[in-house]
Amino acid sequence: MIARGIGKTVKSGNRDLVILRDIDLAVDSGEALAIVGASGSGKSTLLAILAGLDTPSAGSVELEGENLFALDEDARAELRGRAVGFVFQSFQLLPALSALENVMLPLELAGRRDAETQAREVLARVGLSERLDHAPKHLSGGEQQRVALARAFVARPKLLLADEPTGSLDAEAGREVIALLFDLNRATGTTLVMVTHDESLASRCDRTVRLEAGRIAP
Amino acid sequence: MKQSLRMLARDWRAGELQVLAAALVIAVASVTSVAFFADRVGQALVRDAHQLLGADLVLASDHPWKKSIADEITRRGLARAEALSFISMASKGEGNARRSKLAGVKAVSDNYPLRGTLRTAPAPGAPDAPAAHGPAQGSVWLDEQLVAALGAPVGSTIRLGRAELTVAAVLTLEPERGASFFNIAPRLMMNLADVPATGLVQTGSRVHYSLYAAGPPDRIRSFEKFVRPRLERGQHVDDLETGRPQVRASIERAQRFLGLTALLAAILAGVAIALGTRRFVERHLDGCAVMRCLGATQNRLLALYGGEFLALGLAACAAGCVAGYGAQEALAGALAGLLQATLPAPTPLPAAQGFLVGLVLLLGFALPPLVQLRNVPALRVIRRESGAPRGGALAVYALGLGSLAALLVWQAGDLRLGAYVTGGFGVAVAVFYAAAWLALRAASSAPVARLAGANSTALRYGLTNLRRHARGNAIQIASLALGLTAVLLLGFTRNDLVDAWRRAAPPDAPNRFVLGIQPGELAPVKAFFASRGVDVPEIYPMVRGRLVAVDGKPVSAEDFEGERAKRLVEREFNLSYADDMPGHNQLAAGRWWTKGGDAHQLSVEQGIASTLGWKLGDALTFTVGGQSFTGRITSLRKLRWDSMKVNFFVIAPPALLESMPTSYITAFRVAPDRERAMQALTQRFPNLTVVDVGAAVRQAQGVIDQLITAVQFVFLFALGAGVLVLYSALVSTEDERRREAAVMRVYGASRAQVAGSQRVEFLAMGLVAGVLATAGAAVIGQLLAQRVFDLDLPPSPMLLVAGPLAGLLLLSLNAWLSSRRVLRASPALTLREE
Fold first, then answer.
1. Is A77 on the interface with B (CB under 8 A)?
2. B370 neighbors B309 (Cβ within 8 angstroms)
3. What are residue A152's phi and psi, to 5 degrees?
4. Sign of CA dihedral B749, B752, B756, B759
5. A83 in B contact zone (CB under 8 Å)
6. Mean pLDDT across the stretch A187-208?
């Protein structure tokens, strides 16, 4: 994944507010990259742009050899479905679906017939074989994030984007989730881009990029 | 579609769809039960109206029917009956004791009537009962007037022409009695086979020949097509469309009531569906954002949710149809006695109608919010505040509402009624929303808040919340007001409308017409009434004239298309003259003349004007006994035919008509214990013709009562839909309120403060919704009464009190229930569910 000259400016009242400027970033296949920075430094905005969820005011992002912003929103969605997995701070599980169904969802959307088998397998790897039919609200925070991890890995994405994956968890649950995340990352050879403000977590990645006031700190 | 069905199953299991499905099922159930019931009642109405005719089709002639026509009825597998009518003197006794009276003789075949029943009593005033068939050979039935006039009780013998016949019963009701006011002479009914023995029907006798046919509607229609081109001069076909405007007016009014009710149910259902879908969409915004992250395109999302809703819609429509059928079946069963008629089986059309209505409601009310779902930004997974998408659904709303409007007009079967209801609905929504928004701003304005805020945190928070949620609250108030309007309209205005309808044909409607009062008899007749303690009725001059020209061009029946128009033109008109418009008439267009103004003016009933294509300014020329006169139409009047009062199609200023040969006519009510006084009237003034329309009045009132009963039941369903809207509106903001309450409690608000602030907010909303709904129900009620039903509806003081009170009570109950739920849940759990 290669990002070139990314800038993001939004209107605030009648003046422009610069959130990101001149971000150049290249992530090699299989590499784990941490993006760290203080609150408000633009970490989450950068992640959203790398994922094609938000559009930059300037610059381009190349993913799998395709320029993300030369595609329309629907084509970006298809590319995401094919190549990108997500883990969010707030889990983002669908409340109406069981753990198993949440994990099946990306495969079902891709029209895969083996959705259930695959989902069961990944849920077993994250240690949730016994909780397949539980609704998210009946799972602990750590368990919910493990379901989210299973959902992120089940479609075997080339790129995994994680936004403060331990931000909503206590220390113990956070450690478990991170251990799993790196295990799965290694086992599948997925490229990982993780936004965090946790320096110890960042130090487990291959490389760390620090954002300060919308720029990459030297 | 498979994925849609999976989503449907999952959302169903999670309890996300139950309220929406219930809304849809109740909607379709109410629409179909209304439609099923209306279909059956409608069929029954047509059948019962046929009972007034005595058949499905009546052929009338002033000379005998050709055998080929009579045989054709039987050949086509239709039931056939025959009758002869003529006027003849009936007598009883001999010599000095001999009493005679001119009787309207009707000789009927054994199977008469084919529709409806004859009723007879063993003696005047005794309870009557239906008779299986007409009088047996050798016997006659006399009506009460004739029994009294001849002094011929049941068992005695009377003479008619050369025949002697036994009085077998007192005739109390016959189908065709309502058909014409001018069954002038009292009725004598006999068997057709006895006619030759009387020797009364000779060549040249004035006899009326009737052929009756009854059978399946398609055969009746095809026979009618066969016979119409073969009619000779002096022959015509009687069906529901001809004559008897008073019965037709009642049926039309009932159909409007039914149509209106179906409309209300459909619209209310739509509102409930819109509210339910809005809640569904709000709860699925996050899920959709996640699915977009996982690669679902916008169209894929729309197809998935569209498919889910379509599947839900079809299932709910099917369930609704079954429920609707069951409901109307139970209803018809429970009300069999009250309905005074067995209802025919329903046709399958209402089920199709139910599916169509359900799917169009989904299209109009569920699709627009769903379309917004596809526009959820994927960014929402990272930034919650990316929020719900807005707009973009206008075109879909327009399409959906357009189809709904078309559907409503179709349901109403009446463009004007459909337009009133859809237009009224649109205006009401806009006005309710704007008024609610303004009221919320005012209630939470700085001065009010200062005034209230000093003492109570709950009050301050409640009032502030009103403004903070102004948009959502205004939507909720508008929905509540809409639901409440329906409930009030159906709960209060309905009763007023029904009362007004009953008043249109009151129980004290006239039951006697007196015709042929000569100018010289006016004073003595009035004196006669006064001396017998009967209120002197209004007496109207009547001039019989034939229409000869319109705008100087001669007219004849051939100039007109419709059967009714042809007959109106062929007949003599009953004209009248007056300085002032009769009190029970209403000016519809033009101006009534001033006394002493231009004499050459005419005022015409608007119905006949539209039938004959007359308009204001047209000059009509009539001849009266060789003299002719011309007048211009300067006003159109609206008449109430079901009032049973004396009505005239054409009225002129006295200066134009008073020189013409005039007799007088009046209508009044005779209480049963004053019947004898009326006999004295005919003895004192033997030239007067007294027409007893009591039977016709009773029949018309029976029909009206039956219609009112049917309509009232149908209202219950629309009422149910209204209640459902109220429920949907109340739960629509529950999630948000629960979250807020949880946050308030986390930050240290006491239970009392949370409950108090919700109560303040709810009560203010209840009051606003109640006031708006009261205004809405009053305005819509007046519009309906005046523009659609032609009824006078006095404003109801009860409504003014009950409307706002209902709003307050409903929302206090809701505040209590809602705060119980909110306070029972632990704030931590509520917030974690986020």
1. yes
2. yes
3. -65, -35
4. positive
5. no
6. 89
Q: B644: which residues sit within 8 A by CB, 6+ positions away? A: B246, B505, B509, B510, B511, B667, B693, B696, B697, B700
Question: Which residues in chain A have Cβ-Cβ distances shorter than 8 Å to B14?
Answer: 95-97, 135
ipTM value: 0.81
Verify whether the Cβ–Cβ distance B379 to A53 is below 8 Å.
Answer: yes
Domain span at residue A190? 2-216
Q: Which residues, in sequence order, are CB contacts of B634 under 8 Å at separation 6+?
A: B590, B591, B593, B601, B602, B603, B616
Q: Please name the residues between 167 and 206 in chain A that touch chain B, using a CB distance below 8 Å.
A: none
Strand pairing report for A191-195 and A159-163: parallel
> Which is it for strands B573-577 and B650-652: parallel, antiparallel or unpaired?
parallel
Domain count, chain A: 1
For B237-282, the pLDDT digits (tens) are 876 545 444 555 555 566 566 666 766 777 777 777 888 888 888 8
Cα pseudo-dihedral B263, B269, B275, B281, rounded to 10: -120
Contact predicate A161/A27, CB 8 Å: no
State which H helix or E strand residue A106 sits in: helix A99-109
Residues 6+ apart with CB under 8 A from B473: B436, B440, B466, B733, B761, B765
CA angle B332, B335, B339 (to 5 degrees): 95
Which chain B residues are Cβ-neighbours of A44 within 8 angstroms? 382-383
**Do B636 and B616 meet the contact criterion of CB atoms below 8 Å apart?**
yes
- Number of Cβ within 10 Å of residue B255's Cβ equals 20
Mean pLDDT across the stretch B398-417? Answer: 71
What mean pLDDT comes out for the span B210-228? 89
**What are the DSSP calls for B536-595, one per residue?**
PPPEEEEEEEEEEEETTEE--GGG--SHHHHHHHHSPEEEEE-SS--TT-EEEEE-PPPT
Q: How far apart are CA B612 and CA B571, in angstroms?
A: 13
Q: What are phi and psi of A49, to 5 degrees?
A: -70, -40
Output the pLDDT for position B181: 36
- The domain that contains A90 carries what CATH number? 3.40.50.300
Domain ranges, ordered by start, for chain B: 1-56+247-413, 58-238, 424-510+693-834, 512-691
Q: Which residue has the tokens 């959203």?
A: A48
Lowest pLDDT segment from A12-26, B71-85, B602-616, B745-759: B745-759
Residue with tokens 């130090």: A203
Closest CA to B500 of B719, B782, B714, B797: B782
Pick from B10, B295, B383: CB nearest A97: B10
Residue B260: per-residue pLDDT:
67
- Give how far the C-alpha of residue B149 lies from the chain's centroid of Cα atoms, to the nearest Å: 41
Partners of B286 on chain A (C-beta within 8 Å) are 92, 94
The reported pTM is 0.63
